[in-house]
Amino acid sequence: MEFLDTYKEKMVPRKGSEKDFVVEIESISELFAIIDSFIVNKVRLVTITCYPEPKGDRLFLEYHFTDGPSVISLKIQVPDDKKVPSLTPKLPAAGWAEREIMDLFAVEFEGHPNPARLLIPEHMERGVYLRS
Amino acid sequence: MSYKFPLGPFHPSLEEGEYFELEIEGEVIKEVKMRIGVSHRGIEKLATKKNYMQNLGLVERVCGICSMHHTWAYVQAVEKALGLQVPERGEYIRVIVGELERLHSHILWFGLGSHAIGFDSLFMFLFGIREAVMDVLEAISGNRVNYAINTIGGTRRDIKDPDMILKMLDELEKNVAKAVDVVINDKTFRMRTEGVGKMTPEQAYEWGVLGPTLRGTGIKSDIRIDAPYSVYPEIEFEVPVVDGGDIFARAVVRALEVLESIKIIRQALKKMPSGPYRIPRVPPVVAPAETIARVEAPRGELIYHLISNGTNKPHRLKIRTPTIMNLPALAEMMKGASIADAPLLVLHVDPCMSCMDR
Fold first, then answer.
1. The domain spanning residue B326 has which CATH number?
2. Which of chain A's residues have a Cβ under 8 Å away from the Cβ of B303?
């Protein structure tokens, strides 16, 4: 994969599995440029994880992709306004993963074709996993 | 003129509650809207409130059919974070119980599928032969459903009587061969399944379809081969792939997988070394780490993403089940099908609704 050459220094292997990598991405445009090259190379979207950092309030997103043997996770910090462009118009597989994160962590995915609630009832306020 | 047909949330043809709104013109399905979350239990959040050992019992209950694969993925993620090496016998026991689970899950799928097309004699026969697998699982673990076989650092129980499993497999193989013959050659079965639920390999990529549903479109993808875990590299087996992309192709994939699972269990029983099957003491606290574990559950790739924070509880446990990828794709497969095929179409991706809602 072309991607592997350009990002070699930034790829950090995960603990316990030398074939799985985390790549920290600075900007959303860079993230979408990488995902475009993944779509061309048919690298499959596994899922998107959203999590608050262990100490602090910042939220992070990890887009996990796989080419079979390895899982490449693109890690990006959610901006302060909690708005991230949606991946679904490019890759329908992201649809439910994004809707789930909207329900559980109240991150807004702009341009999602169907941003209705997925897991929680219509009347419930979003961000149920942020409450403790 | 079109009208709306509500399938669910509770409907005789659905095994679990979930809402499908079918837009119908005449007898043809034009649009499908899905509303999930009927059995959302907040398991991912609950996992952050329990310690690593208590979570074993929790993730076991994400799913009722593939419960062993859920704990398998979970313990793998924790073992990676702790840097533990599981004794080899423990890994073999996991493979054997995991494949027994695949056997009973696939036979269950065939049973429900044949019931959905009205082939009730095949349904009765398959549920009869499935009991033999359930009896073996009960003899190994003491439970028919949530086996609680995995623990961090090995398995909770040993396999003491391999001959009992071998005897069951011989009998099962004969019975499965009969059922496979019916599935492949029976005219009624073929008429109901061929050309229904069509999906191209391109669509399968776009929607991220997994497991036998993907392998039925001619794409070879199996975590046991792609990213081997446990002792699968030591075992010889084939991954069946069938072109066609319809329900029939997926049925053939599952039928062949049943036979492969039997092969895997026989080899694993032969190669299983003697010795300990678990690590006696496991540290309760996990240092900060981020690990990923993938296993091939009966329905497809199952992934656990664990983030630990140096305490005895996980900071975040993300569970991605295969059904949450397969179900949105089902909406595409259902378009253009007849309303009479709707229950079969929903059943054929082997949906595990509670698994998906978590």
1. 1.10.645.10
2. 46-47, 64, 71
Using a pLDDT cut of 70, give the percent of chain B over it.
100
Which alpha helices (DSSP H) does B199-322 contain, by range?
A: 201-207, 211-215, 223-226, 247-271
Q: Give the best residue of A66, A99, A123, A129 to mutate against chain B (max B CB count within 10 A).
A: A66
Reported ipTM: the value is: 0.88
- The answer to whether the CB atoms of A17 and B80 lie below 8 A apart is yes
Beta strands in chain B (DSSP E): 2-7, 19-25, 28-35, 150-151, 154-155, 289-297, 300-308, 314-320
Residue B347 lies inside a defined structural domain of this protein: no
pLDDT at B74 over 90: yes
Q: Please tell me the distance in Å from A5's CA to the nearest CA on chain B.
A: 21
Domain count, chain A: 1
Residue B139, min C-alpha distance to chain A (Å) = 33
pLDDT single digits (tens) B51-63: 999 999 999 988 8
Q: Residue A97: list chain B partners with CB under 8 A.
A: 320, 324
Residues from chain B contacting residue A117 (CB–CB below 8 Å): 37
Of chain A, the percentage scoring pLDDT greater than 90 comes to 8
Residue B355 belongs to some domain of the structure: no
Position A4 scores a pLDDT of 64
Domain containing residue B97 = 40-334
Give domain status of residue B8, yes or no: no
pLDDT value, residue A1: 59
Q: Is the pLDDT reported for residue B217 higher than 80? A: yes
Residues of B in contact with A121 (CB under 8 A): 37
Residue A2 has pLDDT above 60, yes or no: no
Has residue A43 been placed in a domain? yes
* Residues contacting B57, CB < 8 A, separation 6+: B148
Q: Quick one: pLDDT at residue B169?
A: 87
Inter-chain touch A22–B288, beta carbons under 8 Å: no
Specify whether the CB–CB gap between B327 and B34 falls below 8 A: yes
Which residue intervals of A20-94 are DSSP H helices? 28-40
Q: Domain count of chain B?
A: 1
